[in-house]
Amino acid sequence: MANADMPADTMLRTADGQPLKSALAKASRKARIRAFLLVVPLLIFVLLTFVIPIGQMLSRSVNNDQFSESMINIGVWFDENPNAEPDEAAYAALAADLVYSAANRMIGNAGTRINYEVPGTRSLFTSSGRKAKNLKAPFKEALLELDEDWARPDLWAAMRSASGTTTFNFYQAAVDRKINADGQFERADENSRIYMTLFGRTFALSVVITGLCLLLGFPIAHLLATLPLRKASLLMILVLLPFWTSLLVRTTSWMVLLQGQGVINNVLVSLGIVTEDGRLEMMYNQTGTIIAMTHILLPFMILPLYSVMKTIPPSYARAARSLGATSWTTFRRIYLPQTVSGIGAGGILCFILAVGYYITPALVGGADGTLISNQIAFHMQNSLNWSLAAALATMLLASVLILYWAYDRLVGIDNMKLG
Amino acid sequence: MVNEPQNDGFVVFDHVQKSYDGEALVVKDLNLSIGKGEFLTMLGPSGSGKTTCLMMLAGFETATHGDIRLEGRPINEVPPHKRGIGMVFQNYALFPHMTVGENLSFPLEVRGMGKSEREAKVKRALDMVQMYSFINRRPAQLSGGQQQRIALARALVFDPGLVLMDEPLGALDKQLREHMQFEIKHLHESLGITVVYVTHDQGEALTMSDRVAVFNDGRIQQLAPPDELYERPQNSFVAQFIGENNKLEGVVESIDNGRALVRLGTGELIDATAVNVTAKGQKTVVSIRPERVEYKAELLPSGAHTVDAEVLEFIYMGDLFRTRLRVAGSDDFVIKSRNTSGQRMLKPGEKIKIGWAPDDARALEPS
Asked: For chain B, how are helix, strand and coil distributed in percent, rounded to 5?
């Protein structure tokens, strides 16, 4: 290797005296440009469909313009008077903002934003906004006359935190924290701590589903890898068949099978295994979610396992047996360690898919079988609190990335074989 | 022969048959007795049943019929891990997730051996193949020849009385292969173990073995020490498979005291030893080694018949000359002559007369 600080005469040169490195770069430039051009379409596609939306989601999760966009004067007052009680100037600024927002039809947004933190305050904003243009100084008395609630300290705390252009309020809401009257964050009331419970349930169910997939998938993958080619490809089609069927169809078939009056219960009742009153509840609870999702995610475990097992020659097991190991020892000490890369890949794949799964838990999960993604969907579609949805989604993304990092540290990502 | 081990029936195949599909026999009625301390090679083309025999001995395949006995004890029902047979595999089968030391330690661990004893045995086995300095390497960090030595050491580390080798040198280059042949041979001699070795390389079989069993079509075609196999093949398959051979087809003209006179298709008469032809008028294939064919009249035994030949091709191979001739209508008759001083190089198109001692030509049944 020629170093920059080496004397020029020891630098390697081509026959016509050019430095070898620049000659090499020149020779391979064309190939590199061509290779780059080939990946440009994919690069643009990934940028448009992946990087930009995720970036938007991240910025949405800290975006705070709903209130601050129209309530400008009060925002200035909050900046100038940190930690101060609202005085006449504050009420004057508030009154001016209410007039401006109402005139520009932005009062609803501002009210909604405060309503996230102090429930029931949206109507305070809209009704006060309608009457604000008639307000006269002193504004404090005038506003309090309109509505006593304008004096509430928790309302002022919420407005102060909503007046910045960015906020972590949504993350705080996502970890079940709320603003109290002193403007401090504290744990939400016990019956409204839903997100951490949901995160916990999501991860617990995902672990269970991944474990079940491994238990069921490992023998199948082994069978696939050892059967003669013709039988193996038939079995492979059976494994892949669910892949080619609509997710919705598969989930609804599970509903047909599992529900109270469904096929499985009917068979059990007709066989006398369970009584008519004792029909098993396998649907609209966690059992339903676990069964249906295990079935749907099974191929994602089998395929990486299969691709790893396919590369393990049977002679290893034979060698171990000839060296005196029982079949159990052979499995534990020789076969299993060599499938670790497949277990890791399948496990991570199943787990990540399970953590973000939406449609199946929504259909079969019922009340206690829904996952965090269902809550995200709820905030996207029903409550329209996109910022909170984005915050929840970002946390989900972050936890998956942490998992990936932990796997890399423990097993090594280059040990993962996806196919 | 260096040593002639006593055939005490250490390993016995007794009327063993094997079928995979219930329709065709891969091994047809195998009877074989291997003595303790013997180096026996199973040699044959692929699909001849030799590897199946080895796998039955190791316990990875079950015999469809017949008994396999080890030290007089039938082992058909004994699972492989209780047979105590060392085995070297074609692709070495070194466990990739273990170091060399762990690979060797594995058979000792599963036998419940203590740590210090294990270490001593692993060291001894690795020293035996001069690989102790590689104890902490992974198999992937070793060259093919080094992996081969480790596989050998692993098969020997638990002191098995019988070691099976399934084409262990197949993946090595020629030079390394020849070197390893001698190394395995020396280990066999110094340890006094019994080795059953499977190969399709006849050179390997001849170099290493006490006895060679030539397999074809599920049967042992000939079981003999290397020299006998080469010099006195029992049938045309063995003659063809071991070394290079010239074949001349003809009809037995007369048999006299083990000497046969064979008339070729072109009407010429040649001398041969009657091996498995018995009567006048029988069709036969006469097999002659290329290095036993003579074309200088003064070197032929008196009274030997000669045949006309035309030189088609002359190849200079360094220590040897290889000449291809047209003899009795066939274009692939080859003779080899040593490159001694004064040896004459034949020219293509030259007409010569060739002959041989009757002992060197063997009249076999046509295959």
From this structure: 30, 35, 40
Predicted local distance difference test score (pLDDT) of residue B117 = 94
**Residues near B197 by beta carbon (within 8 Å), at least 6 away in sequence:** B39, B40, B41, B42, B164, B165, B168, B205, B208, B209
**Chain region(s) in chain B for CATH 3.40.50.300:** 11-236
Answer for the pair A124, A111: CB distance below 8 angstroms, yes or no. yes
Give the chain A residue nearest B156 (alpha carbons). Answer: A323
Determine the 3-state secondary structure of A283 from DSSP: coil
Q: What is the pLDDT of residues A225-247, one digit of tens each?
A: 999 889 999 999 988 888 888 88
Tell me, what DSSP letter sits at residue B23? S
Residue range A42-69: mean pLDDT, rounded: 88
**Given an 8 Å threshold on Cβ–Cβ distance, is A319 in contact with B89?**
yes
Question: Under an 8 A CB cutoff, do B106 and A322 touch?
Answer: no
**Omega before A138 within 30 of 0, i.e. cis:** yes
A327-378 pLDDT, tens digit each: 999 999 999 999 988 998 899 989 999 998 888 888 888 878 888 899 899 9
Backbone angles phi, psi at B211, to 5 degrees: -140, 150
Identify whether the C-beta of residue B158 lies closer than 8 Å to the C-beta of residue B190: no
Which ipTM value was assigned to this complex? 0.79
A195-415 — its CATH code? 1.10.3720.10
What residues of chain A lie within 8 A of the CB of B164, using their CB? 322
| Residue A187 reports pLDDT greater than 70 | yes
pLDDT over 50 (residue B1): no
CA dist., res. A225 & res. A217, Å (int): 12
**Per the CB < 8 Å rule, is B81 touching A313?**
no
State phi, psi for B361 to the nearest 5 degrees. Answer: -110, 130
Residue of A323, A326, A334 to mutate, testing the B interface (most B Cβ within 10 Å of its Cβ): A323
Phi, psi of B363 (to 5 degrees): -85, 110
Q: Where in chain A is the domain with CATH 1.10.3720.10?
A: 195-415
Nearest Cβ partner of B91 from A313, A321, A337? Answer: A313
- Which residues belong to CATH 2.40.50.140 in chain B? 244-364
The pLDDT assigned to A2 comes to 44
At residue A164 the predicted structure's pLDDT band, cuts being 50, 70 and 90, is confident
CATH code for the domain defined by B11-236: 3.40.50.300
- Residue B177, C-beta contacts closer than 8 angstroms, at least 6 positions apart: B169, B204
Q: Which residues contact B295 (CB under 8 A, 6 or more apart)?
A: B309, B335, B346, B352, B353, B354, B355
Alpha carbon of A321: minimum distance to chain B alpha carbons (Å): 5
Chain B positions in Cβ-Cβ contact with residue A320 (cut-off 8 Å): 95, 106
Q: What's the confidence (pLDDT) of residue A65?
A: 83
Candidates B95, B108, B166, partner chain A, best to mutate (most A CBs within 10 A)? B95
- The 10s digit of each residue's pLDDT in B283-308 is 898 889 898 888 887 777 777 788 88
Q: Are strands B351-355 and B259-264 parallel, antiparallel or unpaired?
A: unpaired
Looking at the complex, report in whole angstroms how far the Cα of residue A404 sits from the nearest Cα belonging to chain B.
23
Nearest chain B residue to A321 by CA: give it.
B81
Distance CA A254, CA A177 (A): 37
Per-residue pLDDT tens digits for A369-399: 888 899 899 988 988 888 889 999 999 999 9
Nearest CA in chain B to A335: B95
SS (H, E, C) B152-214: HHHHHCCCCCEEEEECCCCCCCHHHHHHHHHHHHHHHHHHCCEEEEEECCHHHHHHHCCEEEE
* CATH (residue range B244-364): 2.40.50.140
Beta partners for residue B165, in sequence order:
B88, B197
CB pair distance less than 8 Å for A337 and B97: yes
